[in-house]
Design goal:
Two copies of one chain form a homodimer.
Chain A: H1 24-42, H2 49-56, H3 60-67, H4 70-81, H5 84-88, H6 101-118, H7 120-129, H8 135-156, H9 167-188, E1 190-191, E2 194-195, H10 199-217
Antiparallel strand pairs in A: 1-2
Helix pairs in contact in A: 1-2, 1-7, 2-3, 4-8, 6-9, 6-10, 7-8, 7-9
The first copy, chain A, binds a DNA duplex (30 and 30 nucleotides) through residues 20-24, 27, 48-50, 58-62, 64-65, 69-70.
Chain lengths: 218, 218
DNA sequence: CCACTCTGTCACCGAGCGGTGAATAACAAG
DNA sequence: CTTGTTATTCACCGCTCGGTGACAGAGTGG
């Protein structure tokens, strides 16, 4: 018969520990995933080597080995980001015919608004961009804006903005408005006194946005 | 007899030390000033008890004693902030007659744009607002938005927005655009591909902004 | 078997952080 | 001078951070 106290020293919880296998590729992926998850959920404030290693369940040394430190890891995130636009934003016209530049910008605005609202990682990166000017964030920023510009170019097709309007400047304003309003909503459910909690609030915001676009581009 | 190595401990640079006088009010002010300067110049990232004390040239203990810690200090900054609007933004119409709501919003946009561009502290606070949701930043945020709302109300006078336009939502968008574009410019001299370095660039941005306002409000 | 590489872990370092208890120095009142 | 109050500094704590060198073990080739 087995003694009662033998229970404490048997197999030593072998089954529980999830034996870590030797697999570099998987570990690298785990680190990258942990980094993205951490950045998305906690923001850039507490984003560091120790936190990522903790999140990935491995030693931080591996981050140095495989990515050359935090910088390299951020760069890897940036590379991943290149596919963000193509993943999250539809590349077609959603079955509509975009006859005018106004049609195009209205649709682009709505797509970008929804995509940004749905992606916490992207939001955190945008917030990071306007808060700091380190080498790290500059890399991220560049990757993001490049992907975005490509997407817009692709959607634009042969449509051209009306004469007499500085489309680049106006569009920068529109995208700035979208980014800021989404960021503000994410942290405080409002922006400049405008509530942004439920779907109805966002309807109003979207309508206002469309109103602005149409006011400029007709 | 005095040992030779006693020389190292004599007068101890008395004359150099700039004798600190006992003056609580002055010290409190020094702390508050240091805090604002530090936040404006370095941003919220490295904003902490130690840094503020170092900047004020006093011991951090005094911050606990006089302000009850960082929270209290931030609150004091918020109180100060109440007077920001009245200090930095003219309260009159600049000699113009604001006949329509469009006139009003155009002028408000320009004033707010210039004021924000000129005030690094305010910019840092806005960036902080969209990056974090701590108790501290919520206090600041509240003070800022309250002051801003009061200013707008005061400027508005009896002018009313045109029917059929959700002015609150549209204005939130406009202010969001201004804030984001100024923040982005402050860290990277550009926003969404639009260069924002010299006065000429800002002219274009301002024109685009006015175009948007006029597009909605006529 | 050995020797070697590759993956992963551990222990440690110096520095900075927020926070606290006790000492010290200037002034005021008696 | 003595006593007490108030402004200011100092010394220290525990913790986390980024970073590094040494080590353990699995796999691989001879």
């Amino acid at each position: 018969m087995v003694p009662a106290n033998a229970a404490v020293k048997i197999p030593l919880e072998m089954p529980v520990v999830e034996k870590r296998v030797r697999n570099r590729a998987a570990t690298e992926q785990a680190i990258l995933d942990a980094a993205k998850r951490l950045l998305a959920e906690e923001g850039f404030q507490n984003f560091g080597i120790n936190a990522v290693a903790r999140g990935a369940g491995c030693d931080k040394q591996l981050i140095y080995r495989y990515y050359g430190g935090l910088n390299g890891l951020v760069e890897a995130i940036g590379t991943d980001l290149g596919s963000w636009v193509t993943d999250r934003i539809p590349d077609d016209t959603g079955g509509m015919f975009l006859l005018t530049y106004g049609d195009l910008m209205e649709r682009l605005s709505m797509l970008f608004l929804d995509a940004l609202r749905a992606d916490p990682l992207m939001r955190r990166i945008v917030a990071w961009e306007v808060s700091e000017n380190s080498e790290q964030v500059r890399r991220l920023s560049e990757a993001r804006s490049k992907a975005l510009a490509g997407w817009i170019e692709r959607m634009r097709g042969s449509l051209v903005p009306p004469k007499g309007v500085d489309a680049q400047a106006v569009n920068a304003m529109i995208f700035a408005a979208i980014q800021h309003i989404v960021l503000a909503a994410a942290v405080s459910d409002q922006c400049a006194g405008l509530a942004l909690k439920n779907g109805k609030d966002w309807e109003k915001a979207a309508t206002a946005l469309k109103r602005i676009v149409r006011g400029v581009y007709g």
